[in-house]
Design a protein that fits this description.
This protein has a seven-stranded mixed beta sheet, with helices on both faces. The chain has a four-stranded antiparallel beta sheet with strand order 1-2-3-4, with helices on one face. Helix 3 runs antiparallel to helix 8 and helix 3 (62-75) runs parallel beside helix 9 (190-208). By secondary structure, the chain is of the alpha/beta class. The longest helix is centred in the N-terminal third of the chain and has 35 residues, at 104-138. The chain folds into three domains: 1-212 and 506-519, no CATH class; 269-373 and 392-479, Vaccinia Virus protein VP39 (Rossmann fold), CATH 3.40.50.150; 533-703, Growth Hormone, Chain: A (Up-down Bundle). 50% of the residues are buried. It has 26 helices and eleven strands.
Length: 703
């Protein structure tokens, strides 16, 4: 066991944040539903750590090793892996590849298994919270101790993201976490931690010895395998994300297409009944419709199918934007046509929305590939990676980068009509006219999997003129045309939820949240922690988390919806908290002054909208903007350390703060109803409660 208190403090602070992020990524990929139910694992870590601070009973830290081992064993069991199918069929939010059967019994079973998994994660973090609470109790300078805690929490975040950058498996990160837990364990109890580590090793090996190429990208789990042999589909590779099919790396070369009639005959298809075969390839269709194209922008370029299509038609300048660096690497190495090796293709590893806002070029064609995200942007947001691409503001940016004869080709795998309606409404709002909508390839699938095409010209008359020049293509489009009813509500940057049917908290979130709240309240009261509960700290935790949630979304509009943005914004927040602590060490800032500047800094967020910060100098972006948009948290940090230092029971204060953060995470679901900006007002409301409680407490003490 480590002897130095400061070393113990550094290790436990690093471990809690590092392990929290590891579990969020691991569980969100292995049990896919947790990539769609935002911050659930995050809440488990907060509640577990908070209860550790509030419990009076000693809980040895080796219990964390046991909790982690049980968690990993659970997510490897088919019963728990089936949670996605049990819950995903709830109809008011869409989850890719949902379960086909649903019933109250199956839904109930899914909720029960979710609560069990939540409890295991919570159990793993209770001893860690207890360990940190003991170090806080022994501290003679709580401000300095808390500063060390924040500093090494920051290092934990940076370490996790560094390992993600180098594609390190979260199973390896779990082993690192177990080793740190063993180092914190008493010598007599180390055998328990070592036993858990031995049990964990086979799970690590199964991720190393696996069929196909397996990579843990900064966003998701990717696995490349051979494409199953199917008589109608072209040869190639299959890329799976989070254990389900995601995209094909297809050989649609001219050589293959020249053999296609013979291949189709062999498969038993009657070619005479396959009308307009030359227009069925969605990757070639943009150039069949408008062959004189010189500059093409691909948003969501994937592993190269769209780039290969542009090269087949001699496009001179192709800009391919793809957010996941591992998908780009798979495309470079394994795409049959090797499009990313061609000098005509410029690859940009970035968020498509960020590139649209940054580029000064004009394009004849913008192709938005199927960016069907299976991952959240962050555990601190309700936003999926692709949400901001389909808002009216994003599509207005597409409109602005199109040349006068430019066309937008947007493909999407529309399985729910309301998703198609949303995309149509957003395009209509941005372009001032309804797009042309039709299906591709689904009858049968011979060039891939197909989907729905939305075509919007910059000049409304230009598309009709093009179609009038090719009667056969016009008939092909008309035969497959779709007319989605246009809803009144289109997607905006404030409400970007493409996969949500309406302005409501999805049922899956409500069901799971109610079950977790009931479970938490039972533990909370049975453990007799209510007497140690601190309302001020609780309100501050909820306010802090709500502001941080909406801030990730706002920052994504400025810097891009990438993992780097998350590192930047969270690091900026922790650095500002450290600065607040350092200022407090030198000057005891009056509470009322901190609160006044907190209100003023909140007001600043409304006078400087995120959209106005997009075009500023890059150096200013990286230095000043993180400070400006996080400034309220600096003054909140001053308030926090003021209350924390004066608290009679610092452990109950800190534990209550963590529980408040968990409740703030639940309140963040209200952005589904009122929009992301509403979370700013809700955060401010909780800070007002802090001051009201403070005034009430002072008045009560004077009485």
């Amino acid at each position: 066991m480590m002897q130095s208190k400061n070393v113990q403090l550094a290790v436990i602070s690093f471990l809690i944040l590092f392990l929290e992020l590891v579990l969020i990524k691991l569980i969100g990929t292995e049990i896919r539903i947790f990539s769609y139910v935002p911050n659930l694992i995050l809440l488990a870590t907060f509640i577990g750590s908070g209860l550790g601070f509030l419990f009076k009973k000693e809980i040895p830290v080796y219990h964390s090793a046991l909790g982690l081992t049980l968690t990993v064993m659970a997510i490897s069991m088919p019963m728990f892996q089936n949670i996605t199918d049990l819950l995903s069929s709830i109809s008011d939010s869409y989850i890719w590849f949902p379960g086909v059967q649903t019933s109250m019994g199956r839904t109930f079973m899914g909720i029960v298994l979710t609560v069990v998994l939540f409890t295991l994660v919570m159990y793993a973090f209770i001893p860690l919270g207890k360990y940190l609470s003991k170090l806080f109790s022994q501290s003679k300078n709580i401000t300095a101790t808390y500063s060390i805690n924040v500093l090494f929490s920051l290092l934990g975040i940076l370490a996790f993201n560094s390992m993600s950058y180098f594609r390190v498996s979260p199973y390896i990160s779990l082993v690192v976490s177990l080793i740190l837990i063993i180092c914190l364990t008493e010598k007599k109890k180390m055998i328990f931690g070592l036993a858990c580590l031995i049990i964990m090793l086979p799970f690590l090996l199964t991720t190393v010895i696996t069929k196909g190429q397996l990579v843990w990208s900064p966003y998701q789990k990717l696995q490349l395998t051979d494409l199953p042999a199917m008589p109608n589909l072209p040869p190639g590779k299959m890329l799976r994300v989070n254990n389900v099919g995601y995209m094909g790396l297809l050989d649609l070369s001219e050589e293959y297409q020249s053999k296609m009639p013979d291949i189709l005959k062999t498969s038993g298809l009657d070619i005479s009944k396959l009308d307009a075969l030359e227009y069925r390839n969605q990757y070639d269709l943009p150039y069949k419709l408008a062959p004189a194209r010189t500059s093409v922008l691909l948003i969501g370029a994937g592993a190269g199918n769209d780039a290969a299509g542009a090269l087949r038609f001699g496009v001179e300048k192709i800009t391919a934007v793809e957010i996941d660096p591992s998908i780009i690497e798979f495309g470079r190495k394994y795409h049959p046509e090797k499009p990313y090796d061609n000098p005509k293709v410029t690859i940009i590893n970035d968020d498509g929305r960020a590139f649209l806002q940054r580029t000064k070029e004009k394009y004849n064609v913008v192709i938005m590939g199927l960016t069907d995200s299976h991952s959240l942007n962050s555990s601190l947001t309700n936003i999926q990676l692709d949400n901001f691409l389909y808002t009216a503001e994003s599509l207005e940016a597409v409109h602005s980068v199109l040349a006068e004869d430019g066309l937008l080709f947007l493909s999407f795998d529309v399985w729910r009509d309301w998703i198609g309606q949303r995309i149509k409404a957003s395009i209509t709002e941005a372009f001032g006219a309804e797009p042309l909508i039709f299906t591709t390839q689904r009858d049968p699938q011979i060039f891939g999997w197909g989907g729905v095409y939305f075509i919007a010209p910059k000049n409304p008359d230009y598309l009709n003129n093009l179609l009038s020049q090719d009667e056969e293509l016009k008939n092909y489009v008309q035969k497959r045309k779709i007319d989605y009813q246009t809803p009144n509500k289109y997607l905006t940057d404030d409400w970007p939820y493409l996969y949500l049917k309406g302005n409501t908290v999805p049922k899956i979130h409500l069901y799971v949240s109610v079950a977790l709240i009931l479970m938490f309240l039972s533990i909370f009261y049975m453990a007799d922690t209510v007497k140690r509960f601190n309302r001020q700290a609780f309100f501050m935790g909820a306010a802090f988390m709500l502001y941080e949630f909406q801030n990730i979304g706002r920052t994504s509009l400025i810097f891009g919806n990438t993992w780097k943005t998350n590192v930047l914004i969270i690091s900026a927040i922790l650095i500002l908290i450290l600065c607040a602590n350092l200022l407090y060490m030198r000057v005891k800032v009056p509470l009322r002054l901190s609160f006044t500047f907190l209100i003023l800094s909140f007001s600043l967020q409304f006078f400087i909208p995120a959209g106005s910060l997009v075009s500023v100098n890059e150096l200013v972006k990286l230095t000043l903007i993180p400070i400006i948009i996080n400034l309220p948290l600096f003054f909140a940090g001053l308030m926090f350390i003021t209350f924390f230092e004066k608290a009679k029971d610092r452990n109950s204060f800190y534990g209550s703060n963590l529980l408040g953060s968990a409740v703030g995470g639940l309140f963040s679901y209200l952005s589904y109803v009122f929009g992301i900006k509403a979370l700013i007002f809700l955060s401010l409301f909780f800070y007002l409660l802090v001051m009201i409680e403070s005034i009430w407490t002072v008045g009560r003490n004077e009485d």
